Hints:
Blueprint: E1 3-7, E2 21-26, E3 32-37, E4 41-46, E5 51-56, H1 60-63, E6 66-70, E7 74-78, E8 84-88, E9 95-103, E10 106-111, H2 118-128, E11 148-152, E12 155-159, E13 170-175, E14 185-186, E15 192-195, E16 204-208, E17 213-217, E18 228-231, E19 237-241, E20 245-250, E21 255-261, E22 279-282, E23 288-293, E24 296-301, H3 302-308
Antiparallel strand pairs: 1-24, 2-3, 3-4, 4-5, 6-7, 7-8, 8-9, 9-10, 11-12, 12-13, 14-15, 15-16, 16-17, 18-19, 19-20, 20-21, 22-23, 23-24
Amino acid sequence: MSLLSRAGPRSSKANIPYDPPHYLLFTPDGTRILHGSKGDTIRVWDTSLRELIKIQTEDVSQVGDWARLLDDHIIVSGTSKGSYNFWDVTFGTPIRFCTASPGSRGLDFTRLASAPNEFTAQSWETILGDPKRWQGDPRVCNQTHNRVAYISEDSIFVDANVDAKTSNTRVGCLNMGLKPREDFKLSPTGKFISFRLPSSAVDSFLWCIDTETVYRLEKSLFPRGFYGREWSPDGYYIAIERYSDFTLWDTRTGALVSILDFGRAFGDGPPWNGASNGKLCFSLDGRCFAAADGGRIKLWDMKSAIQRGPYRASRTLSFREDGAVIV
């Protein structure tokens, strides 16, 4: 079995409200998972999926769009608007001791609690005084390339200069004959692009830029829609979220290498508005893969998942004489 562990029994919609997640991400050392939900809760799990810390916030805005764990005892959650909340979890009940929000001259800090001792006070001062440690969304990969992708009419273009879309910096161009959807996604290495066409809600495609090959993913495979995706840190795998599970694909060959079953439909029912409320992420070393839906979370070992299969090879798509891919 590729499933290592799980936390919590399936909730009953009769007495427990559905609690879709805001974010799911591993700490840099890969030993813990940060899980923020729309039900005003931030959780920290270890990789055996034992819940270590549970913070019941006062408002969903305090959960934020992402979180960081600092020095094993401070949790900071941030939002896309640049505001932050800080909790100290060394005590029996987590203390929200400070907030930071954008002001006319930078960040304005508001102290919400007094430190119980001098050591804690010094710890708070150290963390707040070093914004480089806690600013910036940790979900943004440290990309090692300078490629930028964009759509123009029926084609996807890739340039090697993020500041100028000019022909002399062009790395590749893919003509689809139809305008691709705007939700295309470039891999962390800049070598692959995942994209879809407006004519299908199920099929997705993978373009290997350097080798100039294209694969169709999900063709005739459990036609239950396409709701999300996530790249492995090295870009060699892509996980595609569907109705109640994830398909894992090898980006170098286009092969389906595993199906990871979550065990139930995300949201305990069909996704609303064509989008699932599940979340998925890889550990930074690429060894583990996690998925969450409300208060339920599962963890897979990548090596075991790939060995388990199923393995289904994929053939590259062909091109017309004018360079457009035949889909």
